[in-house]
Specification:
This protein is of the alpha+beta class. The chain is built from four helices and 15 strands. The protein has helices at residues 54-74, 141-148, 174-181, 218-233, and strands spanning 5-6, 22-27, 30-36, 49-50, 81-91, 95-96, 100-111, 114-123, 126-137, 183-188, 192-198, 237-247, 256-267, 270-279, 284-294. A 13-stranded antiparallel sheet has the order 1-2-3-7-8-9-5-12-15-14-13-11-10, with helices on one face. β7 (100-111) and β8 (114-123) form a beta hairpin.
Length: 296
């Protein structure tokens, strides 16, 4: 296999969660790819703007492609990696349908099978996002199966929201409509919101992540938080930054999870927030804080 090449056969993500990229450099300390945002991307909204959170997944899949390429070159089996957290991420400008992106990744540290990857996303030579993501490399398929082959919590007999009925106008993407329609219960305060949600097995983001062992992509937790913020603020918003994201558990199809979001500072230009995700048993699955602003 020679460079440049498609990452499709190098990464474990398939279907709708396989983000098309062309691998240009495949070194752990200096990787690079290019990507064109196409209409098939499930993170596009109805104004053809791309969700900022998926830029994290682009860097994750670039890193997975480097692992895949190096394994192919060495005649080894490619193992799956799991997104387990984010030190920080900043988003400077929106991305739209048709944009051509340059993505760069640099492994800056490795601790106990966890790689810390600094990622930079550019368009026309201008930086539009930068982040530091954390990926855990599973040692074998048995380990991955042990993580994912669990019995999910029941989502209950009915949902409180039905797609197509009384949908708020601030929901401007199919993904956010699907997530809103999967909410089971909700409690809204002045500066906080609590809700439970269960993504059904046919939810788009389970498609190809991973085949045979579906897991909710970690970046979708950010999408769920975005929906919660939009409900609380009653307007369309975009994430502007994320800090100290920790993912300590997987979310499976049909699994009930609870999200609590607190706004710490709310201004016309945006707000600061903290978010906590727990399982039905109260176990923490993820936590993060960040900022959001007006959807451009």
């Amino acid at each position: 296999m020679t460079l440049p090449c498609s990452i499709a056969d190098l990464i474990p993500q398939k279907g709708k969660m396989s983000l098309n990229q062309t691998l240009i450099k495949a070194k752990f300390d200096d990787s690079e790819s290019s990507a064109v945002i196409t209409q098939e991307n499930i993170f596009l909204d109805n104004q053809w703007q791309l969700s900022n959170s998926v830029l994290i997944e682009y860097i994750n899949q670039l890193t997975a492609a480097v692992f895949g390429y190096q394994a192919r070159q060495g005649g080894m089996i490619v193992q799956k990696g799991l997104f387990v957290g984010l030190q920080d991420a900043e988003f400077f400008d929106p991305v739209y349908l048709g944009d051509m992106l340059t993505l760069r990744g640099f492994t800056i540290e490795e601790i106990s099978h966890v790689s810390f990857i600094q990622g930079i996303v550019e368009r026309d030579g201008q930086k539009i996002a930068q982040l530091t993501t954390k990926l855990y490399q599973t040692e074998n398929l048995t380990e991955l199966s042990g993580i994912t082959n669990q019995v999910p919590d029941s989502a209950g007999p009915a949902e409180i929201h039905q797609e197509g009925q009384n949908l708020p106008l601030y929901l401007v993407s199919n993904m956010h409509i699907q997530l809103y329609s999967s909410i089971l219960e909700i409690h809204i305060g002045k500066d906080n919101i609590f809700f439970t949600i269960a993504c059904p097995p046919d939810f788009e983001a389970f498609d190809g992540h991973f085949p045979g062992n579906p897991i909710l992509p970690g970046v979708v937790l950010l999408e769920i938080a975005t929906v919660g913020l939009e409900i609380l603020l009653e307007k369309t918003i975009s994430l502007k930054s994320i800090k100290k994201m920790k993912i300590s558990g997987m979310v499976l199809p049909g699994q009930v999870i609870a999200i609590e979001i607190n706004i710490n500072q709310n201004q016309d230009s945006g707000c600061l927030f903290t978010a906590m995700v727990k399982g039905k048993d109260g176990k923490e699955l993820s936590r993060f804080n960040g900022s959001c602003g007006k959807h451009e």
